[in-house]
Amino acid sequence: MSKDLTNSAIDRQNVLNNRYALVKAEEHLALGGTTFAGETVFTKAQIVALFNISDATVERYLAAHDEELRLNGYIVLKGTKLKNFKGLVDVSLIGEGNKAPALGVFSFRAVLNLAMLLTESDRAQAIRTRMLDIVMDVLAERAGGQTRFINQRDEAYLPAAYQEFSYRKIFTNALRDCLEMGNIKYGIYTDRIYQVVFKEKSKEYKKILNLAEKDNPRETMYAEVLQAIASIENGLANQMTEKVSTLKRKLAPRELDEMLSDVERNPYLAPQLDAARTRMASRDLHFRDALHQKLESYVQCVPIADFERFLGETSQSLESRLSDPQTLEVFKRLKDR
After folding, report:
1. Residues 269, 227: contact at Cβ < 8 Å?
2. Where are the domains of the chain?
């Protein structure tokens, strides 16, 4: 999916929140800069030279995108910090601001931010293109080439998958015992729950993620999505059982449909459903390059914590987790509860 970084604040922030891509970018782009207080920074004069733009252009972008650039490391040095910085660099790098009581400098991250905003600079365009390549390389490398199953690298995935499997069994048993309908009911009401949680049927979900017919969609779902599904499955199973006990007969499909409609309107579930939709829409767009059009309004930038969660040191492949004796002990305890 093509990304226009100049027009999308979400896509820009996704790149800038990925510290693994930033480390590789700083190494490979070799943009220069000055080491100050433990990081690489750039003066406005260096930015002008780097991007071959005017001083006025830099000021214009600072004014138009002040909040975003400050979020990503643009700072104004004053007092002792400014004095220390001036002692490190040549006066020519400060320019006309040498006598000024304050000086704005860009961190490496803020320089990349500016490169993703600038439309007047060929160098900025080249950096944007290279950054997208670096992001893809880092993602493939750290996810082991399996972005389809990047959800499974989350340490919360296995407990959530086990929990959902348990409640799925309770729900299918309730469908078997409480609903007056043929075996087609299992597929129909699985889809209905999916539609409540993330507005798509199983076939729609598989198409968006380019899954094979034999692939189990739940093996690609994030922990928050599985937890939302499990909550609905368990609640519906309990409600169906109680209703059948009261009526002394099985339920008609329309009665279960009414229960599902109540679930969709349930204010207690709204925060959990919103969270599941936001996680799915945002992560899939960035990590899997997959757009859930029915969830497009839920797309946000992927937070820094999620890059640690799926690409960081605590993330592992499912095979690695299942080979861990401590993980197996946890599942034994869950099984015996």
Report:
1. no
2. 9-142, 147-336
